[in-house]
Amino acid sequence: MEHLADDLRQFIIDNRMWAGPILGLITFGESMVVIGAFFPATALMLIAGGMAATGILDPWSVVLWCVAGAVAGDAVSYWLGRKAGPRAWRHPVMRKRRKMAARARLFFRRFGTASIFLCRFMGPVRAFVPLIAGMTAMPQVRFQLANVGSALIWVPVMLAPGYLAGKGLQTPSSGTWFWATLAVVALAVIAVMGRKLLRMNRSS
After folding, report:
1. Where are the domains of the chain?
2. Which of 46, 73, 126, 181 is deepest in the core (most CB within 10 A)?
């Protein structure tokens, strides 16, 4: 996986005009059920944040393409679950990943719409939650609102560490403060939601 990330990084540097679409495709793949584990989106987004800070990449183009890819990936997983319905549990692919699917199903049952937001930050489980949302016929408008809203927070949070490292906190600029503030606000929102969900879980 590290070699793949290094190769993609070099390819992005050599083909800057394709950086946005490539990163969008990577975030799309990571958001897809089953195949998401094979896409090194987290590492590449950290690298992309650093390249955006040094002027190699346009930061707004990176953000927009990554958000679009993340939203599209979850939307496709939701659509697959909606089309397959409960019979998806009997599919050989799901049987091979029964533990992961069961964890995602329990997570979705416990937290409902909030799980679409929280699963962005939960590694392998996250690609299964949109699928389960579709399988259980979660209303599409509610799902898409959570899908888009979570992507708009997740992408800047993932890019911010690389961006801030690239800029250097010793010589902060307006752009650096923008990303730092955005990251702090996003993490605060995640912390507040996490506390509320834990309280709900304990009370139930």
Report:
1. 2-203
2. 73
